[in-house]
Backbone:
């Protein structure tokens, strides 16, 4: 049993020595503890069952408990783990064991218990109320003669009283680990206060005598006042060389651009950019005209000289118009093709020869997919307005249907009839009326 006691003491000091420093780690504290030892309830549970004891309400009776007084010691190991040691003294009525072949004097005798525990806290000491679970190992001395051993386990509640002080309420079950030990409950409350440990005063050595003035770089500025003691410099720069603020190798006294890195041949300034296009003159093939890097500083070229640069020109090698994205104007081709789209009086069909002439229109539309076509049908003034309006629509549709059948996307074709509202010649003459019975083709640039 003495070996157990010695091991317990070693275990206690080992835990205390492993404590970590930290602002929320509990400082060493001492507490006065009052508790009650309940052997009766533990005995009833062992003899009967826990359920039977609870049903009979024979547990935790104040009259069955033995008062105890003692001391507690706390020290934080981490912010959520504390070491706790208990030393309890109680006056027990002997014998209190169920059976034993060892003689113990009867009457009230001193019972001393010491245990070492680790408290696993659910919160740090920064919180007002902190629940925890406790586990440990302990020894006791019964009747000042016999040693006992037990393993305490339970739970508790730590309540912050003021800075560094706590109220601890806990309840543990001390399980027997030796012949003379009897399992029992210990219910206690304590008030802890931090220990004030004396801090070791550091030994302050007298300062060494001041060294003799030294000028390591031999620049005439002693090291004590030299901000660059290992590099020769000037007194006006506190012993440092002439500064080079922009780190371009040209010192600030010779640098015309001291805060911007440059080249010596430009007196410390960057390579100039005359046209301000972001490309320096040494790399710019058009240094006086703003351009783009991908064209070596020159503007976007206009190969066909039509005023539309090659990046926006869909026909960069053929002069065109902006409406057709740099491609040639197709309206002349459409106008020429429309010269053959003349109709007989009251008719809306075209001959095969006339339709064959639309092949040029198909070719233009296939070559320039961004061009759409507006087809307008017209009549002379022969007959009623209502009939001529319908006739003009039919004349426009016959061309649209032909072009769609030839492969032109119908979405690019629009047709409309204008009757005799837009004559191109005099309806008073036969030749004029023949000229007015027509279809017109108009390019629509998208």
Residues:
């Amino acid at each position: 049993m003495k070996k157990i006691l010695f091991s317990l003491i070693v275990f206690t000091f080992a835990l205390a020595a492993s404590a970590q420093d930290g602002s929320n780690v509990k400082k060493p504290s001492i507490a006065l503890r009052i508790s009650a030892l309940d052997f009766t309830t533990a005995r009833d549970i062992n003899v009967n069952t826990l359920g039977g004891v609870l049903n009979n309400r024979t547990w935790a009776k104040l009259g069955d408990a033995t008062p105890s007084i003692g001391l507690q010691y706390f020290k934080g190991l981490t912010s959520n783990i504390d070491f706790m040691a208990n030393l309890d003294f109680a006056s027990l009525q002997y014998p209190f064991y169920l059976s034993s072949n060892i003689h113990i004097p009867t009457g009230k005798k001193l019972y001393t218990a010491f245990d070492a525990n680790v408290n696993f806290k659910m919160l740090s000491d920064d919180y007002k109320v902190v629940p925890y679970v406790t586990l440990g190992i302990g020894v006791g001395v019964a009747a000042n003669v016999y040693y006992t051993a037990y393993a305490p386990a339970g739970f508790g509640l730590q309540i912050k009283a003021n800075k560094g002080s706590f109220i601890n309420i806990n309840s543990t079950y001390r399980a027997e680990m030796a012949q003379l030990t009897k399992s029992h409950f210990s219910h206690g409350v304590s008030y802890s206060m931090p220990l004030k440990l004396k801090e070791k005063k550091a030994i302050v050595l007298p300062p060494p005598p001041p060294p003799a003035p030294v000028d390591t770089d031999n620049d005439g500025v002693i090291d004590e006042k030299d901000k660059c003691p290992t590099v020769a410099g000037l007194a006006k720069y506190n012993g440092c060389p002439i500064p080079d603020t922009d780190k371009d190798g040209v010192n600030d006294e010779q640098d015309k651009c001291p805060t911007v890195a440059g080249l010596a041949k430009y007196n410390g300034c960057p390579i100039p950019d005359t046209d301000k296009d972001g490309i320096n003159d040494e790399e710019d093939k058009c240094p006086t005209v703003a351009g783009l890097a991908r064209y070596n500083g020159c503007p976007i070229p206009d190969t066909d000289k039509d005023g539309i640069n090659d990046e926006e020109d869909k026909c960069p090698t053929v002069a065109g118009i902006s409406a057709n994205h740099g491609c040639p104007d197709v309206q002349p081709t459409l106008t020429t093709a429309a010269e053959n789209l003349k109709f007989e009086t009251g008719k809306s069909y075209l001959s095969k020869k006339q339709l064959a002439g639309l092949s040029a229109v198909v070719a233009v539309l296939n070559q320039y997919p961004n061009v759409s076509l507006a087809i307008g049908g017209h009549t002379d003034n022969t007959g009623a307005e209502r009939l001529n309006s319908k006739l003009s629509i039919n004349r426009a549709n016959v061309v649209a249907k032909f072009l769609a059948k030839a492969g032109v996307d119908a979405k690019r074709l629009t047709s409309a009839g204008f009757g005799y509202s837009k004559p191109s010649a005099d309806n008073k003459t036969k030749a004029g009326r023949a000229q007015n019975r027509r279809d017109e083709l108009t390019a629509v640039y998208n």
About this structure: The radius of gyration is 54 Å. Helices lie at 2-17, 39-47, 50-56, 331-338, 352-356, 359-367, 385-405, 430-436. Residues 4-21 have pLDDT under 50 and may be disordered. The longest strand covers residues 146-162.
